[in-house]
Amino acid sequence: MHETPEDLTALQLLLDESHAAAGAHLRSIFNDERRIPAAELPGLLPGVQVLDLATVTAAGEPRVAPVDGLFYRGSFWFGSAHDSARFRHLRRNPAVSAAHTRGEELAVVVHGAAHETDLTDHPFREYCLEVYGPAWEQWGAPAAYARIEARKMFTFRSTS
């Protein structure tokens, strides 16, 4: 686990504020009994998690596609080619929504802005090496990476 106590405190505040501001329907499904506390998320989201990431085209149309999502220090990170449509969208409009789901057992939904980050001297680089191994230096390191700065985040787990 790479999250600091401060990361988890900030994440829990985000989860609580998001839940409090949600509509009645969402709160009825993502209810208090089913919400996942911030402290449990790192253990549930180790390594690569498929993240369905939605970006916005220049015409304002949504586009969604799966990416390797890595949960690190309380945020989702992802990468793609520098010249990918995804990063062209993000450079024009950083608004994103993303969801990681496992059937009806677990869901983490995030809405916010994606911030492209140079990993040259960033601690997230070490996490990528930890997750993917040394081969990441050849195929992964040259990619573009972004962190989702969450404005809203919702968690759900089945109680059965």
User: How would you characterize the largest beta sheet?
Assistant: 6 strands, antiparallel, barrel
> Looking at the structure, what is the overall shape?
globular
Which sequence of strands runs across the widest sheet?
1-2-3-6-5-4
DSSP strand count: 6
Number of helices: 6
Question: What proportion of the residues is helical, as a percent range?
Answer: 25-40%
C-alpha end-to-end distance:
27 Å
C-alpha Rg, in Å?
16 Å
User: Could you tell me the mean pLDDT?
Assistant: 95
Give the class from helix and strand content and strand pairing: alpha+beta
Please identify the oligomeric state: single chain
User: Strand portion, in percent?
Assistant: 35-45%
Regions with little confidence, pLDDT below 50 for 5+ residues: none
- Encode the helix/strand succession as letters: HHHEEEHEEHHE
What does this entry look like structurally?
The chain contains six helices and six strands. The chain has 160 residues and is of the alpha+beta class. The chain has helices at 5-21, 24-29, 41-44, 85-92, 123-132, 136-139; strands at residues 48-56, 62-72, 75-80, 95-102, 106-116, 144-157. Strands 1-2-3-6-5-4 form a six-stranded antiparallel β-barrel. The two termini are 27 Å apart. Strand 2 and strand 3 (75-80) form a beta hairpin.
Q: How is the topology of this model organized?
A:
Elements: H1 5-21, H2 24-29, H3 41-44, E1 48-56, E2 62-72, E3 75-80, H4 85-92, E4 95-102, E5 106-116, H5 123-132, H6 136-139, E6 144-157
Antiparallel strand pairs: 1-2, 1-4, 2-3, 3-6, 4-5, 5-6
